[in-house]
Recover the amino acids of this structure.
């Protein structure tokens, strides 16, 4: 496993982060989830990412139980706040001081830890003054409940405003967690340059485009049974943007590139996001330990300019690049 600094901080994270969105507490039985975490640890992964909203707090509990016997100082544990949790009352959502301060305590209880290494604003809250949100984060850092603060899916303007306030309040934003893959490159034009200027790294989610870049979805074919595209708990909604014959036909053109490199298509996809110098880590989920064991082999892989050009040529115009797709909800979700 290779390690990279997260933003302009002294914190190092593993190039592959194990994440449990859509798996722990939901799609995957707890014993299998524990086996996946163990496989991640065995492979050298030290960085683990979750959120209070995943499976309505159940995912944090599963991860906390799976990690409880590990040396805490040897791990980087990340979680997030924003989406509705609990009974989903009017203050069980967003980035108000009330919700943040209550949420961090709940996350720490479920994760069985005194602190998280990174606490992230899961989206931008248009209904809370940014000053209120950043002051709450500053207080959490001073209380020792979070060592660092990050954001997720904030656009360049929001990152710049949040960074300025964090400096005034005596801490710094060090990361952003956006969707990023060969097919979804909307952060490249504005978010990445702004982050690089201000000292934030990207921790990217869905580097395999919800499984599409594994090549398992074939143009004109039935959806594979048990795949994310058939999961009505949330996975199907996320993946459907890529499930058209034009995209799937282009993705199949990546197979010979991966073959020439001795990589699986999933390994190629994960290695591709790690070529971006502003990416500190790629988030990887798993429903089976074997997926962990295979995908971690993308760490440390270098793709030369010729390979990157072949990938661009293969995918052509199906790549989504428009920065306008980096958006947070216009109102708080309920």
């Amino acid at each position: 496993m290779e390690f990279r600094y997260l933003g302009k901080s002294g914190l190092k994270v593993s190039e592959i982060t194990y994440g449990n969105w859509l798996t722990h507490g939901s799609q995957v039985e707890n014993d299998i989830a524990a086996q996946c975490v163990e496989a991640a640890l065995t492979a050298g992964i030290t960085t683990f990412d979750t959120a209070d909203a995943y499976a309505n707090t159940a995912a944090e509990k599963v991860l906390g139980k799976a990690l409880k016997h590990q040396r805490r100082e040897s791990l980087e544990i990340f979680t997030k706040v924003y989406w509705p949790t609990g009974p989903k009352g009017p203050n069980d959502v967003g980035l108000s001081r009330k919700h943040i301060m209550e949420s961090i305590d709940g996350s720490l209880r479920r994760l069985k830890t005194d602190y998280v290494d990174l606490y992230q604003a899961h989206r931008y809250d248009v209904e809370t003054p940014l000053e209120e949100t950043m002051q709450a984060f500053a207080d959490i850092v001073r209380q020792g409940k979070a060592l660092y603060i990050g954001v997720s899916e904030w656009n360049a303007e929001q990152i710049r405003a949040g960074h300025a306030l964090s400096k005034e309040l005596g801490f710094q934003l060090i990361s952003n967690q956006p969707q990023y893959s060969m097919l979804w490159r909307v952060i490249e034009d504005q978010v990445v340059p702004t982050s690089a200027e201000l000292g934030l790294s990207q921790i990217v989610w869905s580097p395999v485009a919800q499984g599409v870049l594994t090549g398992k979805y074939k143009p004109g074919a039935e959806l594979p049974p048990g795949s994310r595209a058939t999961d009505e708990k949330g996975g199907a909604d996320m993946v459907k943007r890529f499930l058209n014959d034009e995209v799937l036909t282009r993705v199949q053109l990546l197979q010979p590139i991966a073959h020439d490199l001795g990589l699986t298509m999933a390994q190629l996809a994960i290695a591709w996001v790690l070529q971006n110098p502003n990416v500190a880590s790629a988030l990887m989920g798993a429903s089976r330990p074997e997926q962990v064991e295979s995908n971690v082999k993308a760490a440390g892989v270098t793709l030369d300019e010729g390979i990157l050009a072949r990938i661009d040529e293969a995918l052509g115009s199906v790549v989504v690049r428009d920065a306008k797709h980096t958006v947070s909800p216009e109102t708080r979700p309920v």
